[in-house]
Amino acid sequence: MKLLAALIIALGVFVTPEEGWTLFAKTKFKSKYFKEQDEHFLVPSFDQLLLSKRGGEIQIKGHYMPIDMKGNSLILSRYPYSSCFFCGGAGPESVAEIVLKDKKPKLKADQVITVKGRLRLNESDINHLNFVLEEAEIVPN
Questions:
Q1: What class, spelled out in words, does domain 2-139 have in CATH?
Q2: 122 to each of 54, 89, 127, how far by Cα in Å?
Q3: pLDDT tens digits for 11-41?
Q4: What's the whole-model pTM score?
């Protein structure tokens, strides 16, 4: 069983959804001024282990954030809405943008779901979150 878990990690798949958030939490952020928006934004410096997972499949479990997103995209937070990055005291490492393969289902605010998808790390596009799971699907609980 341990050999199987090691093989899964080596292939870029997290054994548990919580490990994704743990890796995201190792990301350091610094404030950078963007002249086009005349505003400062937090810019990530990704941990080497996280960089090695870029393009690999990961799973995360979190709270659905009822933020209007286009197409099949949604926001997942490690923390409930009252404590999330947008409303509470959490940082940008605690939210991920999810781009689903299929049509976005109807979800309730703070509904806990698990998703799996291919990890894209975003260092520069302020119109998207830093952690993006593409070609994602909801994993039945």
A1: mainly beta
A2: 10, 22, 10
A3: 555 446 778 899 999 999 999 999 999 999 9
A4: 0.84
